[in-house]
Amino acid sequence: MSNSIKVSLIQAAPIHNHLQASLQKALDLIDQAAAQGAQLVAFAEGWLSGYPAIDYCPDIAKWGDKATEDVFVDV
What we know:
37% of the residues lie in helices and 8% in strands. By secondary structure, the chain is mainly alpha-helical. It has one domain. It has a two-stranded parallel ribbon. Strand 1 (7-9), helix 1 and strand 2 (40-42) form a beta-alpha-beta unit. The protein is elongated and about 60 Å long. The termini are far apart. The mean pLDDT is 82.
């Protein structure tokens, strides 16, 4: 009997500002990993909500910064 499991670590971006599309993407990625034998699939801790300023404008990734607020006014 083996005590090991196959783990898949997902490195992919969610669909910015679209919860349902991001959830569907997550399900698709889980299905792909399972098809390759993964028994446990893990995403980064902030995958679904993302880190918008860091993800989309790394040169100005400062909360409270006017440029950052302009980019994410609709979030």
